[in-house]
Amino acid sequence: MVKEIQGTSLQMAVIPQSYLDDIKDGLEEIKTLFREKSKAEIGAQWIESTEVRKKLGVSQKTWQTYRDERRIPFSQFGRKIYVKRSDLEKFMEEHYINAR
Fold first, then answer.
1. What span, in angstroms and rounded, lies between the C-alpha atoms of 52 and 50?
2. CB of 45 within 8 A of CB of 87?
3. Reported pTM
4. Phi and psi (nearest 5°) for 72?
5. How do strand 75-77 and strand 80-84 relate by DSSP bridges?
6. Concatenated DSSP letters for the chain?
7. Which has the closest alpha carbon to 85: 57, 52, 43, 53?
8. What's the CA gap between 64 and 49, in Å, rounded?
9. Which candidate, 16, 41, 92, 98, has a CA 20 to 30 Å from the CA of 83?
10. Cα torsion at 65, 71, 74, 79 (round to 10°)?
């Protein structure tokens, strides 16, 4: 079926409801996969040491102690130190204190 609306050709197709439901389900699966992939990519991002300290709200000395005690995994290239965002979030979750 072709219908003309304000000079624009609009084509329509009639399909069974079951096909439409399958398309919707497939789109939901794709959206879920994209969300999961985005979370994984964000967690794999590396953060510089200064940003980690700011997020934790600790001094440079405390941050050095955390690294010396291997409380949070990190990578070091020369003087640059990096932490994976997922490792920082895991550390914060492990130290989460519930409200009463």
1. 5
2. no
3. 0.56
4. -130, 130
5. antiparallel
6. -EEEETTEEEE-----HHHHHHHHHHHHHHHHHHHHHHHHHHHT-EEEHHHHHHHHT--HHHHHHHHHTTSS--EEETTEEEEEHHHHHHHHHHT-----
7. 43
8. 10
9. 98
10. 0
Structure tokens at 29: 């699966």
Residue type, 29: E
Tally the residues of the chain. 100
Residue with tokens 């079926």: 1
Structure tokens that stand for 24 in this block: 């919707």
